[in-house]
Specification:
Blueprint (H helix, E strand, L loop, with lengths): L33 E4 L16 E4 H5 L6 E5 L15 E5 L9 E6 L2 E10 L2 E5 L11 E3 L5 E11 L3
Antiparallel strand pairs: 1-2, 3-4, 4-9, 5-6, 5-9, 6-7, 7-8
Length: 160
């Protein structure tokens, strides 16, 4: 699978491909866009609009570790049951410690992929999240595999 970083207008991100060594791009907030948060909106019964406004800095909201956070565009459909649809943007943080059940960008045998990670003694199991397509099978990872959990998915950005 070939994953490319996404260019997002919110922040300055440099495009790169997985054939090159991935270096963190500094996210210093200088390219951040502040928008007005208009307040809460009810998803149940309608109510009069609140007159509450605050500045919303999307970088501060979505990025915990500036130097180790990357954006990727999803290419493929193996993770649709994890709400990662083709074209969505995922935010991946390399500073977050991988944990059992996390969704992560992983490097295995020369390729990058995003999967749900099931940690187990001596390795891991990379699980696709698409029950409707039997083409996607779990990928067992053992000591003989060239394997790295590259970063943990912290947010998914979807288009409405």
């Amino acid at each position: 699978m070939h994953i490319q970083s996404a260019y997002i207008a919110i922040i300055r991100i440099f495009a790169y491909s997985v054939e090159h060594f991935m270096q963190p791009n500094l996210i210093d907030g200088t390219g951040a866009i502040e928008a007005l948060m208009m307040g809460k909106v009810k998803a149940g019964f309608p109510s009069p609009a609140e007159d509450t406004r605050e500045k919303l800095d999307l970088v501060k909201l979505l990025v915990r570790h500036n130097a180790s956070t990357f954006f990727f565009r999803i290419d493929g459909v193996s993770m649709v049951d994890a709400d990662m649809d083709e074209g969505d943007i995922i935010i991946v943080d390399r500073a977050v410690e991988p944990y059992d059940g996390c969704k992560a960008v992983c490097f295995i045998d020369g390729e990058y992929t995003v999967k749900k990670v099931k940690l187990r003694p001596g390795g891991a199991l990379l699980l696709p999240c698409n029950e409707k397509n039997a083409k996607y099978r779990p990928i067992p990872v053992g000591p003989e595999d060239e394997f790295l959990i590259w970063g943990v998915v912290t947010y998914i950005i979807k288009k409405a």
